[in-house]
Records
---
Amino acid sequence: MLKLREPYEPRPIRFLEEWQDTGWRMKIYGIAYRRPTPRAELVETAKRIAWQCLPFPPDEDGRYGVGFIGVHDGRGANFVFVDWWADENELHHHVFAAPSEELKDLPEITATGLSVCVWDLRVQCFEREAWLEAVLANSRGADLADYMRRRLNEDA
């Protein structure tokens, strides 16, 4: 029998901003445990992490210079994930985490195999659909601007 630490509780998932840096255009999403949005310091850390993680230049080697960043101010840990699209239908995914009291130093944990929690996965599911509709299955042709306009805001 699986014993849960606490019952499932929806968390606010909010589009925070479109972050643009050195040619990259990234949607930043905030997810927070029992607060409306992640702490500002954690969001700034996520931008620093993304800047260090994203490959340059953004539009070479099959990349399009677009993706999304998740900033999850969680119950026991903070998570940042940095995802970008490449090679038409591939999502590159990097994960960083640290205990919830740590807001500045989140080491990369991608190699551990931990990918996403159920709230982070909701962002990825939304972004998959946005990519399909705006780029891959768009009858008018691939539209990166349309992809960037699609944003998730819900309690999930």
---
Amino acid sequence: MMKKIKPLLLTALIMCMAGSAGRAQVSRSAYFLEDLPASSLLNPAHHPNCKLYVNLPVISSFYIGFDSPFSFDDLTSPWPQGDSLYIDREKVLLRLQNRNYFNFELYNELGLVGVNLGRHYLNFGIAKVFFTKFVFDDDLMRLMLYGNGSPGLIGKRMEIDRNGLNITSYHQFGLGYGLRVNDKLTLGVKLKYLNGAFNVWMKKASFSLYTEPGSGYPLTVSSDIELYTSSTISDFDDMIDQIEGYKWFDMSGNHGYAMDLGVKYFPAEKLGLSASVVDLGSITWKENVKNFNSHSPAKDYTFTGFDLTDFVIDGSVTDTAKILDTLKVHFGLTETHAAYTSHLTPKGYLGGRYNPTKKDALSLLVRNDFVEGTWQPGITAGYQRKFFNFLTLYINYSVISRSYSNIGLGAIIETGVFQFFILNDMAYALMEPALAKNYNLHFGIGFKFWKEKEEPAMEDTDIDTQPDDQD
């Protein structure tokens, strides 16, 4: 039994990671870089210093990133002899907490346009969004790494009940509005229509497992599972073959709505405070819905396992429907096809910015992600400096997901109407990728017209510029 169930569990883990590795919609660095149109995605009260900006398709704005509880070096160790690596199971478990998070997000802006009408700001954008939020406890990882036949589990009951998974892909159409109430206060809101393409939502995943001593190590399981799925690719039968037919901009009957709210306030000339909440919303899934629920959560089922090789030909899984049918029987699941509603992952921002000079800015940002029923906090301190009239450089330091080696770098280049930016919150990962638990990259090209005039920058100097008194 152990030999049979371990490949299944390891495959499930790899599928979760692979589905994730393909994270935050926009980098934290963009929050205080208000010259970037992308800053309005984190706070709709932000607006660039121009009358009109246009971001074109393909080259507009692209973001990719992830947060993980462990790095590649945490997963592997070298063999005593030779240069090959192996998965060090005890090393992996030592890196885990009782509850762990794996996040991934991809944001591809297909176009954005914004206008400044005096006290009023308007913008409209279209984007493709994909995210994975995987919450798991250390006992689940222990089961995946050792299988139920390991000596520490035989004859013992294991409770696994702190897990969740949300994989979602959708198209986003956003209309933003900002109002400058006065010189100190600006309010912003963005209304978004969401068209869902793909969703796998594990709303509930509680298991009680007992491995009986004896031949084959049969596993007695009681489960309380709520799993919801929808896809424009297929109905999840032969899904791997069907995925090749996926269309990048295929509209569906899965409709959703969301809202962003933001505020900026300047209590003093050089000090600015801001706050926002984004992605408050949900999507109702109707197309190719297939849901699985435990029909008797308190009932025990004995699972003797199955050989995953029965479903694999030439190294590929040929029919996912057979695997699902097998799991339904052994874990007491009922299949339904009713429409359901899944939530987005809201994020809250609270920031402060201080400008000691017109060229320099210091910033502090607190961000909270609401991930499957719990808050995941992070904090970022940043500094930016404007050089000449076309280059802005940015550096920050972040503490994210119990990771403390996150130094970010960024640059904005503006010449004429052209603007290019590239941002990274975890530049350390570029130098030591095997040690990185987090990584992201955000870049794009846009065009800004009729920029607002700025007062000449004050140079740092100790020379008295006041005229001498005349005798």
